[in-house]
Design a protein that fits this description.
The complex is a heterodimer of chains A (618) and B (405). Chain A has 618 residues and is mostly helical. Chain A has 23 helices and six strands. In chain A, strand 1 and strand 2 form a beta hairpin. Chain B is α+β, with helices and mostly antiparallel strands. Chain B is 32% helix and 37% strand. Chain B has ten helices and 18 strands. In chain B, strands 3, 4, 5, 12, 13, 14, 15, 16, 17 and 18 form a ten-stranded antiparallel sheet that branches. In chain B, strand 6 and strand 7 form a beta hairpin. Classes of the chains: A mainly alpha (618), B alpha+beta (405). The interface between A and B is large, with 58 and 61 residues.
Chain lengths: 618, 405
């Protein structure tokens, strides 16, 4: 049994992983998968509606799940359909996260009125929207690094409400009571109405009614066009492949064309079917629309299908769980059943790594970009690189240290990535100077591997200190193995952070005209290189032994965290595109925790629970 | 004495000094990064990295607080060279370290050279416009132009620093002396009538009758510019020709005649002239569809040399500069509703040095750590002496010599 335990556990986990990769299923009679797979253009990228719904929810409330007013759990697509086509109902869903006490009082809200004491519906503060807008405009005039927490929160909430309203205007008109009914009248009256507006004297009382409707609808369409968040109308055959239109824009064109735009009309049909609860019509229309697009834009649809599949599989979420389990098993293996649990943990780490690799590869294919394009993907890749190194270490050393480190760092980086994803779409388009796959693939990837390795060295050092001081499990063999691992990883980190930094210099020379400009991000990278160089030199000079090396490596975590996130918080320099507000306190807490462990390591050797000789690593 | 020298030598070749200097450099870089929030990038470079000592204001006096970039970099260089000279022995295993350190020496020297030699200018061109000069980012010059001839100008340019020193300038091409009376590195202009009886030097000729300058605090913010003004007296053999107010605020030069020749006087952004001209044919600002997110900026230019050797079109876009005539032209920005392009022009004779240095260092590190890695993997592969499992798995084989021993 003991012999087969690892194999059985890993196999079961692999089956569970496989289950997440199946074609997503519809929760009810409506074919939400087909509807969610329809492509739209947002922020320069064509993506499935499914992604739009998920990222909008994440931005507004930090999670993808929505509860309807009757307590039913709604999938992101159900929420989106309600919001678009049953706005009066959906406006009561509590999807806006408001936590700042001053904003709550400004909006006359009590925390108890919110779902989970923090989520509110737009109805709950509908009367205060003008005040929210006014406060946000006041905050806009302050430079974003200088804003107070209230100002930041106000701007964020205003942006979220604006996003909600723009989403509502993307397929229907948010302010017209019965847009779909009006639209039906419009479709019927279009030919006659056009004739009436064209005729010099008008065509009688009936015609003037039509003309009035035409006028009214043209105003509605113009509003929709101006406020639309996404562009759902694909370019026709022979048009520019990027010429996606808004629904309002397509409807506006019907005046000149004299006929109903078919793609926009399909969305209207879908809306009516959703409102009136007619799944047959809904499903047939959605599938027909997909079919048309498959024929018209096969390459776009292939990526959109893959992305929708990727969304439902959530590979990074699954790997997060696997990393946690692997970490726990590896940790327990130091105390009990070492060989069995060690092998199980290692198997799970490899499984999680394969899944994360597939996830990163999927993103690369969808984006047609190298792995790291923004802070979010850098977090994914830092974890990926570090786990790969851990797998190599575990393969050679077989002492569960690699698995524990992999579980911890894999989990931590995916958690960071999850929080970074709350900012919106994680596959954004690259701004001009970054639009270079060559440099993204060389400089950015190498520097990120440098981060991975420096963090891993720090993590191994943390394991060394915590295991040594707090447990009895750090025997001499494990201690000296850890010492050698730290040293080896530091060598690796030095190489990659150095090469990455100078590749950055070369990129800067190519695009800004100087090799080195003392820009904050450049300085951050240089600090990592110098710190790693210091580690190597003190060791070569014999100034420190394993314990000292471990302390220095732990401080390497601080240096790397500063370079990765800290410099972005300064809000200055050419690299401040990844600016982030809220993570500041987390960074402080992280630095404090690392310094605390360094202080812990200073406990005299005889007080360590493991009797470690602080031998010089060979 | 000999003892002291030996001690000194031991300090300079020691690894402890290396570590200490590296630590100091980290502190310097960290402080220099943080201070960019207050000072902006240019002032930080001057204060922290291109200086021997970093001064910190304590009340009204500047106190030397920390060694600057030149000191730390110089000592590191000395330490590195001394250590290698002192301990030099050639050994294949050491090629990695030697190459890395050689590269580092070249890199440090290269950074010093580019700090000394590099010149940054920018070139603004509107569509259809032709220019053969670029303008400095931060430096100004006082120009005196003899515009008597109809087909050419003779220009004497006096750099801003001379005005700041207030030392009179006598130039062989000028029939008068230029005597700076006051100089404000940053200033505003106002009508004299608005502030009658304002203190300070007053101009007597040209615009100075009714316009006066007043000093402003020097700014370091990246989005603001210092606009200098100065009051200069021109004095010929027969006495003063007048005292002029010159300012970078004024777009057009002031004109006067002296001894039958027409002169112009102005304080303007410093120029660098090139032996060729550039014409902007078209500037493009591409955005991602349906957004304002910039995808690319590009400038199509025509490059013409007066000798007729070159007359061709070039395209400059992001990450794709033009290297021509010893200068490099980069796409830096745009203005005026996408009708004007801003190119950055860099002349750095030592631009290749970091490439060579980094190539050497990368190779050196790869060799050094590659050797480590091979040694490590080799050690892991070899059977561990004394491990009982090895013979048990392979009972028929002859015992290995190490087991017998």
């Amino acid at each position: 049994m003991k012999k087969y335990f690892p194999m059985i556990v890993v196999l079961a986990a692999a089956l569970a992983v496989g289950a997440t990769l199946r074609t997503p299923r519809n929760p009810a009679a409506f074919d939400l998968v087909a509807f969610g797979g329809l492509p739209v253009l947002v922020n320069g990228r064509v993506k499935p509606l499914d992604t739009v719904a998920r990222t909008s929810l994440l931005t507004m409330q930090g999670r993808q799940r929505v509860a309807a007013t009757d307590g039913r759990k709604l999938a992101p697509m159900e929420w989106m359909l309600d919001m678009l086509y049953r706005p009066h109902q959906a406006d009561h869903y509590q999807v806006f996260e408001v936590t700042h006490p001053e904003i709550l009082s400004m909006l006359n809200l009590a925390a108890e009125d919110g779902a989970g004491k923090k989520r509110f519906s737009v109805r709950q503060f509908a009367g205060k929207l003008a005040e929210l807008d006014r406060q946000a405009k006041l905050a806009d005039s302050t430079e974003s690094p200088l804003r107070s927490t209230f100002q930041r929160a106000v701007v964020q909430l205003r942006n979220n409400v604006a996003l909600y309203q723009r989403l509502q205007n993307s397929l229907a008109a948010s302010d017209s009571e019965d847009f779909l009914e009006q639209l039906a009248k419009f479709e019927k009256a279009l030919p006659a109405g056009l004739a009436a507006t064209a005729a010099p004297g008008g065509g009688g009382a009936h015609a003037s009614e039509d003309a009035k409707l035409m006028l009214e609808m043209s105003r509605v369409f113009m509003t929709m066009d101006a406020y639309s968040y996404f562009h759902p109308i694909p370019p026709g055959a022979g048009e520019e492949p990027t010429a996606w239109k808004t629904a309002g824009g397509a409807w506006s064109e019907s005046f000149a064309a004299g006929k109903i735009p078919p793609a926009a009309a399909a969305f209207a049909t879908l809306g009516r079917a959703w409102r009136s609860g007619q799944p047959e019509i809904f499903n047939a229309t959605a599938q027909a629309q997909r079919q048309r697009l498959n024929e018209l834009h096969p390459a776009v649809m292939a990526k959109v299908r893959a992305e929708a599949r990727f969304n439902s599989a959530q590979p990074f979420y699954t790997s997060t769980i696997l990393y946690v389990v692997a970490f726990l098993l590896g940790f327990v293996s130091w105390l009990k059943a070492p060989e069995t649990l060690r092998r199980t943990a290692f198997g799970l780490v490899v499984l999680a790594f394969v899944l994360a690799t597939a996830g990163i590869a999927g993103r690369m294919w969808i984006e047609a970009r190298p792995p790291v394009t923004n802070l979010y993907s850098s977090a994914l890749f830092v974890g990926w690189g570090a786990v790969l190194l851990c797998i190599v270490l575990e393969f050679f050393y077989k002492n569960a240290i690699g698995s524990v480190a992999a579980g911890l760092i894999g989990f931590a980086t995916l958690l960071i990535a999850h929080h970074l994803a709350l900012g919106g779409d994680t596959m954004e388009m690259m701004r001009a100077v970054l639009d270079s796959n060559f440099w993204l693939a060389t400089h950015v990837v190498t520097v990120t591997i440098g981060y991975s390795a420096t963090f891993l060295a720090g993590l191994l050092a943390l394991i060394y200190v915590l295991r040594g001081v707090l447990t009895r499990s750090l025997d001499t063999a494990a201690a000296s193995a850890l010492g050698r691992m730290i040293y080896g990883i530091v060598c690796f980190a030095t190489f990659f952070s150095f090469v990455g930094t100078i590749l950055g210099g070369i990129w800067a020379d190519q695009s800004w005209g100087r090799f080195w400009g003392w820009d904050p991000k450049e300085n951050g990278a240089l600090l990592i290189v110098i710190w790693n160089a210091i580690l190597l030199h003190v060791r070569w000079a014999g100034l420190v032994k394993t314990r000292g090396l471990a302390c220095l490596a732990i401080f390497g975590n601080v240096v790397t965290a500063w370079s990765w996130f800290g410099v972005n918080m300064l809000g200055v320099g050419l690299h401040s595109y990844g600016f982030m507000d809220s993570a500041f306190w987390w960074l402080i807490a992280f630095v404090a925790s690392q310094l605390a462990v360094v202080a812990l390591a200073a406990v005299p050797a005889e007080k360590w629970r493991s009797a470690v000789r602080f031998a010089a690593p060979r | 004495m000999k003892n002291l020298l030996r001690q000194l030598r031991d300090v300079f070749v020691s690894l402890k000094l290396t570590v200490l200097l590296l630590l100091f450099s980290m502190v310097l870089i960290f402080a220099g990064t943080l201070d960019q929030v207050n000072l902006g990038i240019w002032a930080v470079q001057e204060k922290y990295f291109r200086s021997f000592v970093v001064y910190v204001p304590l009340g009204r006096i500047a106190v030397p607080a920390f060694p600057g970039g030149y000191t730390i970099g110089g000592l590191l260089l000395l330490n590195l060279i001394a250590a290698h000279v002192y301990r030099f022995t050639f050994n294949w295993k050491k090629t990695g370290i030697l190459l890395t350190h050689l590269g580092l020496i070249i890199l440090l020297v290269g950074e010093l050279l580019s700090g000394l030699w590099q010149e940054d200018y920018h070139l603004r061109l509107s569509e259809g416009e032709t220019r053969n000069y670029a303008e400095s980012f931060r430096h100004h010059e006082l120009v005196l132009i003899d515009a008597t001839a109809s087909d050419y100008d003779e220009v004497v340019a006096i750099p801003e620093e001379s005005l700041g020193r207030r030392s009179p300038v006598q130039h062989p091409r000028l029939p008068f002396r230029v005597v700076p009376k006051s100089y404000y590195p940053n200033s505003t202009l106002h009508m004299r009538s608005a502030t009658p009886g304002a203190p300070g030097e007053q101009a007597t000729a040209g615009l100075g009758d009714h316009v006066a300058a007043s000093p402003q605090p020097v700014t370091h913010r990246p989005d603001e510019k210092n606009v200098p003004s100065a009051i200069v007296e021109l004095s010929g053999v027969d006495g003063s020709l007048g005292t002029y107010l010159v300012s970078a605020h004024l777009a057009a030069p002031q004109v006067f005649t002296h001894a039958g020749r027409t002169w112009k006087i102005a304080l303007r952004v410093q120029r660098a002239y090139y032996p060729f001209s550039l014409t902007l044919l078209k500037f493009s600002h591409d955005r991602y569809p349906g957004t304002e997110i910039p995808k690319n900026f590009s400038s199509r230019l025509r490059i013409v040399t007066p000798d007729g050797r070159d007359d061709r079109e070039v395209l400059i876009y992001m990450n794709n500069p033009l290297r021509y005539g010893g200068a490099t032209f980069y796409q830096a920005g745009f203005e005026n509703n996408d009708l004007t392009t801003v190119l950055q022009v860099v002349r750095n004779p030592s631009w290749l040095v970091p490439y060579i240095a980094c190539g050497l260092m990368t190779l050196g590190l790869a060799v050094q750590f590659g050797l480590h890695l091979f040694a490590f993997v080799g050690k892991r592969r070899r059977p561990v002496p004394g491990a009982a499992v090895a013979p048990a798995r392979n009972p028929g084989a002859a015992p290995s010599p190490s087991l017998i021993a």
